[in-house]
Amino acid sequence: MWFPFLFLLVGIVLGLLTDIRVPDEYTNYFSIAVLAALDTLLGGLRAHLEEQFDQKVFVSGFFFNVGLAAFLAFLGVQLGIDLYLAAVFAFGVRLFQNIALIRRFLIEKDRIKKHNEKNDENKRILP
Amino acid sequence: MNGKNKLTLSFIFALVGFMIAIQFQTTQNPEERDTRDLWEVRTEIQEQQKIQQELYSELEDLDVMLNQYEGKSETEQIDALKKSIQMLEKEAGLTEVSGKGIAIHVKPMFQEMNMPQTYPTLAPGLLQRLINELNNYGAKEIAIGNERITNLTPIRDVNGYTYVNNHPLPSLPVQIKVLTDNPQKLQEYMKVSQSRDEFAIENLELSFELREQLTLPAYEEVPPLNDIKIDENVETGES
Fold it and tell me: Which PANTHER family does UniProt cross-reference here (chain B) (predicted)?
């Protein structure tokens, strides 16, 4: 399970080392894309914990969400409406939901583990 | 999760990390491009060198003063102190100064028109522009009427009257005295200056007169230094 996180770190280090910068005009689109990527990441993590992870859904979701978010921002600029707010709102809400679900899941898991340990101890004492 | 799954997931994670890192970098230190061409850089260097020269000469003067202060006898120290006070007062415009320069007469200009014409007044904005231009062309000291222009002189509109140093200007004609090292040059500059046109729009005429001996009045009040604080930051310059 720690393998992907190792890659996340590798990606961050690689990004910091390469010294690539997005031109000023595209920073808006890129920031939205980053938000979408983060959302997909957390969604994938949650699905994995719930054992519903589907690679196809995850990969397609990642690219589609990132593209759609950037496109929405672009469309908003062309039409003069702050459409990127829609993306920020949607992804923001989902981010919080996903994090909440992951937290609940972890707490639940911990509780079950402790409960099992107690049962084991009881079993050992009884005979 | 099988191995292939894990690999794709890891790849996506790495991609996200990469994106976050780039975004972080972009927001932390946005790209600043140096778009100056060779000549602009050269003039910049020249300007900086000029500033450096000026600072050096200033430093020299201060060193001399410091030596005087450190001189042995007490009277010498007091003399040096008095001298520096005098110098500072002169610099701040608290003393009368005289020298060569030009006198600018501001007179109303009457045109032969059928329309009734009002008596023109000297607006603060015009005066400010004129002073800027004079300073640009090498003016050392300026006085408008009887008011000496210092670094802290306010020029503003109070109820329709123009106030300089918090005193109203007399009605036109007004004389502006300017001290400079090269009066001839300043006069020629001013004869073709933009201010002349700007004054003409307001029905004001500027005429210039060379003077070998001009005396400028002193700034009479105590300079308003209430809001000025000592800068205690240690300045660090490039070595």
Answer: UPF0749 PROTEIN RV1825, UPF0749 PROTEIN YLXX
What is the residue range of A120's domain?
Answer: 29-125
- Across the range B77-99, mean pLDDT stands at 82
| ipTM at complex level | 0.79
* B163 and B109 together in one domain: yes
In this structure, the strands spanning B174-180 and B147-149 are unpaired
* A7 min Cα distance to partner chain B (Å): 5
DSSP strands (E only) in B3-138: 97-108
- What is the rounded CA–CA span in Å between residue B179 and residue B100? 6
Average pLDDT over residues B123-141: 85
DSSP code, position A18: H
Whether B14 sits inside 8 A of A7 (CB atoms) is yes
Which residues in chain B touch residue A13, judged by CB atoms under 8 angstroms apart? Answer: 17, 21
Q: How far is A123 from chain B (nearest CA, A)?
A: 33
Nearest CA in chain A to B24: A16
Model confidence at A127, in pLDDT bands (50, 70, 90)?
low
Contact list, A31 vs chain B (CB under 8 Å) = 23, 27
Task: Please indicate, yes or no, if residue A116 is contained in any of the structural domains.
Answer: yes
Q: Is residue A16 part of a domain?
A: no
> Apex CA B106: angle with CA B101 and CA B111, to 5°?
145
CA distance A124 to chain B (A): 34
Its domain, for residue B174, covers 97-216
Secondary structure class of B174 (helix, strand, coil): strand
Domain membership flag for residue A12:
no
Contact B17 A8 (CB under 8 A): yes
- Mean pLDDT on A74-87: 86
